[in-house]
Amino acid sequence: MVEDTEDLDKICNTLDKLTLDSLTLMQEQIELKLNAENAMIGGETHLAKTRYILGQNSVSSLQLPTDSSTEFSALTTVNTSKDEHGINQFDLESNKPDNEKYINPIKWFGYLTPQNLTFAQNLYRQALQWIIQAANVQTRLQEVCTEIHHLKKIKNEIMNK
């Protein structure tokens, strides 16, 4: 009985710690999502300014690649790996534009582009980084919630003895 009480105390302390961890992760995830949202809004604003400066037909979907466009590779890719606990982790990999297969998307809109278009591109890159961080926080949060659920089952088994 004493051993069960000690185990129950350890489980309760661990549950308390994990609950605080989950709240911290939730707060971090909300902040990251807000940062990403603000960056996306800023990028859209700069795109609108660019469209105003260059004209409505100069910045539109007509500049985007189509099926008949030449093949190209992305400048940034998202990689998935597993950490020591088997949890998916995401990270960005910047590819070096060392050959003609890599095209800077800003060149789709011409070679002399307004500074607002570059600002928009940088804001979208920042938003992507925040989204990747939010995805990593989400996977950690899911793992913590799974562990909380598991410990609650063990706690209920001990209490029902």
Report on this structure:
This protein has 161 residues and is mainly α. It has a domain at 2-63 and 127-159. 61% of the residues lie in helices and 9% in strands. The protein has helices spanning 2-54, 115-159, and strands at residues 76-82, 88-94. The chain has a two-stranded antiparallel ribbon with strand order 1-2. β1 and β2 form a beta hairpin. α1 (2-54) packs antiparallel against α2 (115-159). It is elongated and about 75 Å long. The chain starts with a helix and ends with a helix. The mean pLDDT is 86. GO terms for molecular function: unfolded protein binding. This is Vacuolar ATPase assembly protein VMA22. InterPro entries: Vma22/CCDC115 (IPR040357).
Spans of at least 5 consecutive residues whose pLDDT stays below 50 are none
How many separate helices?
A: 2
The total beta strand count reads 2
Q: Biggest β-sheet, characterized?
A: 2 strands, antiparallel
How are the strands ordered across the major sheet? 1-2
What is the averaged pLDDT score? 86
Helix content: 55-70%
How would you spell out the order of helices and strands? HEEH
> What's the gyration radius in Å?
24 Å
Percentage of residues in DSSP E strands:
5-15%
Q: Span from first to last CA?
A: 10 Å
- Helix/sheet category: mainly alpha
InterPro entries: Vma22/CCDC115
Protein name: Vacuolar ATPase assembly protein VMA22
GO molecular function: unfolded protein binding
